[in-house]
Amino acid sequence: MTRVEQEKMQRLRDLNDMNDKMRGMEDHLQTCRNDLYQITSDVARRDEEKQSLRRDISQIESQINSEKNSLNALKNESGNTLLLYGRDIPKVKQMIEQYKNKFSHVPRGPLGSYIKLKDKKWAVAVESFLTPGLLGSFTVDNKNDNQLLMQIFNQVWTGGRKPTIITSNFFNKKHDVSQNLVNAPPDCVGLYNVLEIDDPVVANCIVDQMAIEGILLIPSNERAMQLLSNAAHVPRNCRQGVTVKGDKYFPDPNYKTYGSRYHRAQYLQVDTKEHIIQLECNIKELAKKKENIAIQFNSISKDIGEQEAKKKQLEDKIKKLNSARSEIRRQLEELKATAEPEVANVELLEGELVQIRNVLQEKTAEIGRIEEDLKEIKAKIAENEDKLNRLKESNSSLQDRMKSLESQINEEKVRQREIATGDEFDKRRAKELQQKLNEARSQMVLKQSKLSQYTEQAESVGERQETVRKVPEIVAEIDQLEKSVRKIETDTENTEELTQKYHQMVDKYSTVSNMLTSLNDDISELNVAIEKRSRHYKLTETYFVTYIKHSFKKIMEVRQFEGSINIDMKDKKLELKVIPQHGSQGLTATSNLSGGERSFSTVAFLYSLWQCMEFPFYFLDEFDVYMDKLNRTKVIEILLHHAENHSDLQFVFLTPQDVSFIKKNVAILRLQDPERNNV
Questions:
Q1: Residue 264, Cα to own-chain centre: how many angstroms?
Q2: What is the separation of C-alpha 543 from the centre of its chain, rounded to a whole number of angstroms?
Q3: Which Gene Ontology MF annotations are present (predicted)?
């Protein structure tokens, strides 16, 4: 093997070694990047959990302060049940008493303070249905009283949510609800019948707001299902059932049920001492809960610190790997740029040079022959072009002469046609004039004969009267007078009938005019309403489209994805764009995403739609099948958070995956494993 061949082999081995190092470096760098992405995602998730725990701690501290304030107020004024509705309620009542002469009717409230129960066991059910908001609200007779009461609230209220003010006309007689009162079975009782309300204004307000006459109190859930799940068993006038635990049941054919989160009576027939004990227990529970959350908060903070340290190490390592990769790439480029050694074969090159020279001589001789032929052809072309130019010149002069002759011929033809046409027209005109002359002569003879006859008749009547008016004027006036006489004779009717018709026409005109004015007003109002609704529809459409886009973008950012929704309302098209993992794959269609990424994007899209519409039921089946653990945990947290914020709706999530990490307050129903027959 020659030295050059050895150099070529060594160069090839060096290139292969460099490429292997480069691939290894790329793999190592990609692994570090993946680890960094996982750590960054985990830090972001843990930081979000940390912020959530901080908010929980702040909320618990606020609850503890509120409970302590209520506790201190109860201890200072033991026995004052108004404090159950808020520490500022006694001050509000004092101000109402102070300004009672300024009210047209003294406000009532809190409404719960006017209510007593005939049977205390229904306290939870009654409070669950009437809600703490209604029990703590006030009612006034009119708008002015509402404004005055609101001024009192603004003056004495120290914190927290102000009571609701219900404005409704006061009646000193209770509403008659006997026609709509629920027909309760022996073991049940109507909500209206279990309440004792002496003040008719408060009783009427409760009936108007909650329609309590149609509510049935039921001792157990089993009895509620038995009564309300079948339309044949539903008591008459029953609009809704409430169990002793506060669970709500709606009767068939719209049978449904909602579990109650209200487990302890707080307002109706509650002793202040018992309430003090409850507040102290609540404060202890909240403090314990705060302590547990603080432990979680510290643990997460520690984990975040450790992860940040790992993240810093990985970032330093990636920088070093990038530098090493750049150095290897530089060496590889230098090696590729080095010229490859070649073996010199002089004899072979000299043989090729001789062959090329021979071919070059042959081609040169051939080019000379072709140039001679080309000169002859060019000479013939020049000769033919001269002949062609002379022919074109002679042809051009002949064409000019032909055009002049054709123009003269056309002018002569036009003149001949004009002469022929004029002669024919003159003959026809002369014939017509001769005919008219003959007719005029015959008419003149006839009129002279009639003139003589009329003159004789006129002379027999009397002498001729001289007048300056012309005969046609007199004849026209006579004809006009005759027509007027005939019309008057024909149209003349009874005066009473004409008067009656006139009044009828006036009334009809007035009616139609008023109707037309009313219709024009209606049309104007309808046009204004249509314009308002069109603007409102456009604003609503823009709002929902923008809100869906914003919700989708924010939920995608939870996993550090970039996503957008394009909604074309005109063409009725919707387009999803997703860039996963900070653009590592670039802009792509959802069909090109991985299974987990597609599932997460789908859930994000559904979640953004849920923000803008409300249904009683929501179902998601196998939404997390293709997700990794991190995506799955985050998606489930989002869905459960959404469900908790919409407690009046029902959410069902079906999954074959493990759900042991979900909070215990979430209802989980595990289906039996399917039977599989071994073949």
A1: 41
A2: 6
A3: ATP binding; damaged DNA binding; single-stranded DNA binding
Q: What is the pLDDT of residues 371-414, one digit of tens each?
A: 888 888 888 888 878 887 777 777 777 777 777 777 777 777 77
**Token pair in block for residue 554:** 């924010």
Mean pLDDT computed over every residue of the chain: 82
Give residue 269's Cα distance to chain centre.
Answer: 48
163 in Cβ contact with 138 (< 8 Å): yes
Contact predicate 618/642, CB 8 Å: no
Residue 215 bridge partners (DSSP)? 240
At residue 401, the 3 state secondary structure works out as: helix
Alpha-carbon distance 331 to 320, whole Å?
A: 17
In sequence order, which residues have a C-beta less than 8 Å from that of residue 105 and are 6 or more positions away?
140, 141, 142, 145, 170, 201
Residue-wise pLDDT for 156-206, tens only, equals: 888 778 899 999 999 989 999 989 999 999 999 999 999 999 999 999 999
Sheet-wide strand order for 189-190 = 189-190, 215-218, 240-243, 248-250, 256-258
What the block records as the tokens of 676 is 């599989």
Closest CA to 190 of 163, 210, 217: 217
**By the 8 A CB rule, do 218 and 241 touch?**
yes
Q: 591 φ, ψ to 5°?
A: -70, -20
Which H helix or E strand runs over 108? none
Other C-beta atoms closer than 10 Å to the C-beta of 157 total 17
Q: Are 37 and 581 in contact (CB under 8 A)?
A: yes
C-alpha distances in angstroms, 395 versus 101, 382, 447? 123, 20, 78
Q: What is the DSSP letter of 607?
A: H
Name the E strands within 118-191. Answer: 138-140, 165-167, 189-190
Residue 269 has phi, psi (to 5 degrees) of: 55, 45
- DSSP 8-state secondary structure symbol assigned to residue 264: S
Reduced to 3 states, what is the DSSP secondary structure of residue 678? coil
- CA 483 to mean position of chain CA atoms: 77
Tell me what percent of the chain is helix, strand and coil, each rounded to the nearest 5: 70, 10, 25
Res. 538: pLDDT tops 70 = yes
Per-residue pLDDT for 553 more than 50? yes
pTM above 0.70? no
3-state secondary structure of 635: helix
Long-range CB pairs of 307-312, under 8 A, 24+ apart, other chains included: 307/39, 307/42, 307/43, 307/46, 308/43, 310/39, 311/36, 311/39, 311/40, 311/43
Question: Could you give the angle at the alpha carbon of 128 between the alpha carbons of 127 and 134, nearest 5°?
Answer: 60
DSSP tag of 239: -
Instruction: Mention the CATH class of domain 498-673.
Output: alpha beta
Q: Where are the domains of the chain?
A: 105-271, 498-673
Q: What are phi and psi of 319, to 5 degrees?
A: -60, -45
The alpha carbon of residue 319 and the mean position of all alpha carbons in its chain are separated, in whole angstroms, by: 46
193: which 2 tokens? 């019948």
pLDDT value at 586 more than 60: no
Residue with tokens 């292997």: 20
How far does CA 203 lie from the centroid of its chain?
Answer: 43
What is the Cα–Cα distance from 158 to 179, expressed in whole angstroms? 45
Pick from 654, 650, 667: nearest CA to 616: 650
Q: State how far the alpha carbon of 493 is from the alpha carbons of 76, 481, 488, 640, in Å.
A: 101, 20, 10, 91
Q: In angstroms, rounded to a whole number, what is the distance separating the alpha carbons of residues 131 and 210? A: 10
The confidence score (pLDDT) of residue 120 equals 86
**Longest Cα pair distance anywhere in the chain, in angstroms?**
164
Q: How far apart are CA 437 and CA 444, in angstroms?
A: 11
CA-closest candidate to residue 192, choices 237, 234, 257: 237
